[in-house]
Write a structure and sequence with these properties.
There is one protein chain. The protein has a single domain, classed as Metallo-dependent phosphatases (Purple Acid Phosphatase, chain A, domain 2), CATH 3.60.21.10. Helices cover 34% and strands 22% of the residues. It has seven helices and eleven strands. Strands 4-3-2-1-10-11 form a six-stranded mixed beta sheet. The protein has a five-stranded mixed beta sheet with strand order 5-6-7-9-8, with helices on one face. The two termini are 22 Å apart. It binds manganese (II) ion (MN).
């Protein structure tokens, strides 16, 4: 019996890197066996552990991921990419090579009749002032232009140093500081007029029920996918549910 394309899939935080080939292999099987039967596939950021510019495509590992993704869109399934904090420098060259439609963070979509807001999620971690200051700095067009002008090896070294600094800083922060801020979430529900939010980044997979001005709302937090076992969200006309791959 042919599989009917009737669901939309969401995933994030794969943090793909040549150092963890298991996750890439698992993701490849997911694309070839699952995603090609979907109605659409949404990647909500941190697909890559690091992306320092589209010349990263020169690395065979990255070129292979791009061609794996391209097979999905070529089979007729639209693939959307919303950038995370690790791969916000993804640009039009990767989009072309991988068949991706790039989305702004956040993006509001109509998901089977339900207004849904998609985001990576890091912008809502507003209690982490240090992180937000860095986030604002590296997204300045001037910073971006200057960074992309540097040789690729230097960019990778800077990115690695930033990651190391972030890991060190995280070790000294209380866990709740690194989660999304409840007020920022409530504000996002209100401002965008949605009843559902889907995001990643925190690596704290969950289904939260919120009451916003008396309206029941839901928020899905996507799992990370560091190794052979990954997770994703399936949504169709009946609603959303978490699934394991
Ligand atoms: Mn992230």
């Amino acid at each position: 019996m042919p599989q009917v394309a009737s669901a939309t899939l969401f995933l994030s935080d794969l943090h793909l890197t040549p150092e963890r080939p298991g996750a890439a292999e698992s993701f490849r099987r997911f694309l070839d066996q699952k995603a090609i039967h979907a109605e659409a596939l949404y990647l909500l950021g941190d697909l890559f552990e690091a992306w320092v510019g589209d010349d990263d495509l020169a690395h065979p590992f990255h070129a292979e991921i791009a061609s794996d993704l391209k097979r999905v869109s070529q089979s007729g399934v639209p693939v959307y990419f919303l950038p995370g904090n690790r791969d916000f420098l993804v640009g039009s060259d990767l989009a072309r090579a991988a068949g991706l439609t790039l989305l702004e963070d956040p993006t509001r979509i109509d998901l089977y009749g339900s207004a849904t807001l998609l985001a990576h999620g890091d912008a809502w971690c507003s209690d982490d002032a240090h992180y937000q200051a860095l986030r604002a700095q590296i997204r300045e067009p001037a910073w971006r232009a200057e960074f992309l002008d540097k040789p690729r090896a230097e960019r990778r070294a800077i990115a690695a140093a930033l990651r190391e600094r972030s890991e060190l800083a995280k070790a000294g922060k209380r866990p709740e500081i690194m989660d999304v801020n409840p007020e920022a979430i409530a504000e996002a529900f209100r401002r965008h007029g949605v009843g559902r939010i889907i995001h990643g980044h925190t690596h704290r997979p969950a289904h939260h029920n919120h009451s916003i001005d008396g309206h029941p709302c839901e928020r899905w937090v996507l799992p990370d996918w560091y190794d052979l076992v990954g997770g994703y969200l399936v949504c169709d006309a009946t609603g959303c549910r978490a699934a394991v791959w």
